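Board notes (copied after class):
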Amino acid sequence: MSVEFIFRLFGMVVMAIVGGIWGQRIGSTLNVDPTVGRLPVEQYRFLFGLLGALVGLILTPYFTTRPAKAIRHGLAKATTQSLLASMVGLVVGLIAAALFSFPLSLLPEPFGSILPFVGAVLFAYMGILIFRLRQNDIYSFISSIRGNRPPDKNESDGSHWADSRTILLDTSVIIDGRIADISRTGFLPGSLLIPRFVLNELQYIADSPDNLRRQRGRRGMEVLSSLQKEPGIPVRISDIDVDGVREVDDKLVVLARQMRCPILTNDYNLNRVAELQGVTVLNVNELANAVKSVLIPGEMMTVQVIQEGRESGQGIAYLDDGTMVVVENGREYMDRSIPVVVTKVLQTAAGRMIFARPDEMN
């Protein structure tokens, strides 16, 4: 039984009682001078009670659970900076309202009683609105003031800088495992946020009957556990959710748009969908390709041929960063380390591929 249904029942009972009381009063008033064709008091009470029950059953959630749910989702989507700016704006607005309340209370009635309350509501709203609109300027001003003094211990280790940005993690990048090593290097400027629905999907994979999926899910759990144990990596698990959306990838995109934060992933489809909707994506595969060693045609290097290629006579080798090297006529050098000359570098969607030939000078 949902909370909304319970409130519907409660509202139905309360409004039925209120309707019955009103029906009793209306029936008693109309039957002071009974005439032919006028309904008895009991029927008025029954009809108004039935109408009140119907109104309570339909309208109660619009005054109870749904506004509370909207406020909860609004607070969940708001950043810490926005909430702080709203609280400061509310305090400033109420102080301004208190200063104006005394002269307003001296006005003749009914203005002296109404205007102080109206002023408090108006100044509170204006304070929140102004501080929310100028929150970035206020935050920059406070940061510049704090930057003029020596940093304290928490600021010197970069934790304040990291908390100023949120990065959403999807399931694939957690299972991949490289996120732990990347985070330890300090190249991710922000705190890592894992929504509860991502954690649930990771747990579902870890409980899969398929052995390979189960191992991948458990590896993701281990990676997440190691991230939480790192003191220099802010990791948060949040119960924030997106209503009306079932797929995890779709929820991540909607959540990233609402929170105005990037998604860290290595999922090609999620990458493209997010980019089409204007969401910033941090792709681990693109990062890995970007930091691979840059080679140009004519450059020499030493590789070990470990397997045969698709074409006749080809041999396959790999660099330390995983880049594939296709060696022409390299099949005869199987399981040997040989010097090769780079002939071509090809960039594909899957990564970088290098074509080379054995160095004939050696």
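Comment from the instructor: The CA atoms of residues 318 and 324 lie 5 Å apart. The chain has 15 helices and eleven strands.
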